[in-house]
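ARCHIVE CARD
Drawer: 12
Card no.: 0347
Subject: one protein chain, sequence and derived structure
Cross-reference: see card 0346
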Amino acid sequence: MPLIAELQAQPNAPIPTWFGVGGGADHLARPVNTGELRRCLEADRSLRILGDGANLLVADEGVGNLVVSLAQGEFAASSIDPAAGRITAGAGVNLPRLILEAAKAGLAGLEGLGGIPATIGGAIVMNAGGTFAQICDVVARVHGLDRSGSPVTLERGDIDFSYRHSGLNDLVVTSVDLRLKRDDPSRVRARLKEVMAYKKKSQPLGDRSAGCVFKNPTLRIEIPNIGVPGARVSAGMLLDKAGCKGMTVGGAAVSSHHANFFTARKGCTAGDMILLIEQARARVADRFGVTLDTEVVIWKRA
């Protein structure tokens, strides 16, 4: 990467994740504007974008690609227009903070995503969501750069949103425009409070985890007492029925509270967590014939 030296990229940089395990980046860059981000793409078109780290597991050996954080400069800026029901947010804006700001401004539509830790860019790329909403419900358009550094703007109808999918993995998202509905701030805050209460009751939020490890699968065949073909079923329920609760590998463990939450205990390594993921997936496949896909993103050295 001959251009890396020009980027003032940090060498041998740690990659913070909610698991708190794993390796770092050979080089980490922190551009503050689109011009600097374009230079990063010139240095490494296969660069990886680091968001909040809440849905990320980095292998112990780290990654050789250039890693880019968008947590600063224009990428961390946002603007809210309550009268128009519009929010423009940079890719590095913190989603939980933006949800609170929208509620305070009397704009409804984001509160169903309460309790989801993410940056706006990361949330868009994975189409983050849960029981109450998914972020594609409020997307108006997405702005970014393609891997050659050219600007791209996509309207909502041009984006292939589906369950935990956007088709935007090759786009470096720089900002998004959100369309929300005007509402009484107290009602929006009340709904957010209900969502957060549900999350605290049903999920082990105090543990070191990355939320749900696996996506909820769509059944291809009927499974008695589980579902019919075409039904989307809970990955946590399948993991639970397959006896995965309490499984451990080294310091990695399947939560006894919610089987789709894997927690990192003292001494855990990324290798422990990756092996536990593989073993839990195999157990569900053996029991039900269902292959689970990870919702957690795993970075490995190429």
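Annotation on reverse: The chain has a mean pLDDT of 95. The longest strand covers residues 172-179.
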